[in-house]
## 1
Amino acid sequence: MTAADDATYLSAFRAGLGLPGIIDVHTHFMPDQVMRKVWAYFDTVGPLTGRTWPITYRDDAEVRLKTLRDFGVRAFTALVYPHKPDMAAWLNEWTADFAAGTPDCLHTATFFPEPQAAGYVGEAVERGARVFKAHVQVGGYHPGDPLLDPVWGLLEDARIPIVIHCGSGPAPGTHTGPEPIAGVLRRFPRLRLIIAHMGTPEYSEFLDLAGDYAEVRLDTTMVWTDFSEADAPFPAHEHGRLRAFADRILFGSDFPNIPHSYGHSIEALERLELGDDWLRQVCYRNAATLFGIE
């Protein structure tokens, strides 16, 4: 689809479901120099995954904002993530400023296992952060690192959601997979974790975690798209649990770092044929409830 085709398709999709918009819990806005490094990584990801990964929306931030709004996205995130110490606090300063100037962006923050983490996470919460991002794969850390205990405790008490990439796709990391984060949930069972990419490729295991912990949610980011189905197809026998967890699955796209059109992310959900109400919940209502969006 072209951007114009996407806009037309998504307008019809929203109108057909009677939705005021789409809420996308998995979008990336970062400092320019960081975003360029992320894009450079995806430009060379072929040797890691065996597949090229073109960036469909490689535009300036203002263009990307307009693109999302033209697609009818009413609220979105600015997911940032550090890959080393002494980076998260600086990213949090940037995202706070970005959110202040971008009212439709949910104020996003992040963290890394380091002695000062509890301090700057507390500051971010006080400044109004509404969602956090954790990336176990890129950060290369164990989510059960003792340095993160006060962070998990603080976020559990504050009831602030954390979008966490802890599945082993698109390439496994040292501490990815369900067991490391399951250990965290055993100690912090009220954490509002949003498992990115439905836990790709360990879909069943992360659905098990959602069954065990009432505050665990999952986002749809790239799942069921042609790109992901080629490498990590979602098991058809789990469609029943998609219905069972209809109130805990949230739409995510990974915009702008996706190798396909934005509309295809929604088209992939429609192809599941789980019903209009399921789509309403996933694409808007669940996130609206979680983040208090009227």
## 2
Amino acid sequence: MLYKLRALWSQSFGLPAPTLTEKNLPDQTGKVYLITGSNTGVGYQVASILYAHNAKVYVAARTESKALAAIDSIKEQHPKSQGKLEYLHLDLSDLSTIKASAEDFLSREDKLHWLDNNAGVMIPPQGSKGAQGMDLTYQTNILGPFLFTKLLLPILKRTAADEPKGTVRVSWAGSLAVVLQSPTNGVRWKKGADGKETLDDANSNTFTYGVSKAANYFFGTEFGKRYGVKDGVLHSSYNPGNLASDLQRHANDQYPAWARWLLQKLLLNPVIFGAYTEIYAGLSPDLTLDKDQGGYIIPWGRRGSVRSDLIAEATKENGEAKKLFDWCDEVTKEFA
């Protein structure tokens, strides 16, 4: 409990100023970035900053009309940009569509410098399901990004072969929930209807959200082990910060008005600060392939850490990180 309180304080209050922002980010001409969920919230701000610095940015989102509106908005804000904005259909809640999305991207590009797995859902209505009938949070925050990333590993590897060491990256969205809401060892299992182990979704949607965020931390470490050094790609995860974003929309419905007001006043920050955290994870030259593989970034762009039990499960040979990766591999193989 003491560690949780320290983490809450150190990642929420008295935060140092961001070191990488739109004011000092170098020119990004020739770079290709894919930001999931970038039609709104933090992802939108990330896409806007990158485009303003002349990058080619893929706005990956489920709803085309919302993505195109976001693209138009970003272009209006940065009329002098020499970059490009492209829409990529991506529905992380439907595993049967993800391969087509990856193939669409691969048909349009021969390089990818940063995949930012920013998209996710936070505490949707209890009992919400994805297209394959599994818990919506697990499908959208765990299985969807896992499959999408695996399908893009070849282009990431090819890009890394021609770029400075450690500059091609994959980032995974965690949050304070990694520390505060995930169970001991990060995930919890149960027997499914077929008798095989599956992720436990019998608790509250707050619980499943915490599991999904711990899973993203595990993905940063496990993808890093399996593909990071070998492929020359830096995998890490991040807590973008406590933000007043659209991600809060379902959670806000569950709190009384006074609690929402208190949350806004004391804990939540402008969305742009979350973008600074993510851009640090994706572009900061401070991070290196040798020192930061599987690392965890905290607000507003600095190295951080997670609970000791999660670190143990990520580092041991047959820990929960490996078990989760192998489970995701099994569940998604028919869609790959």
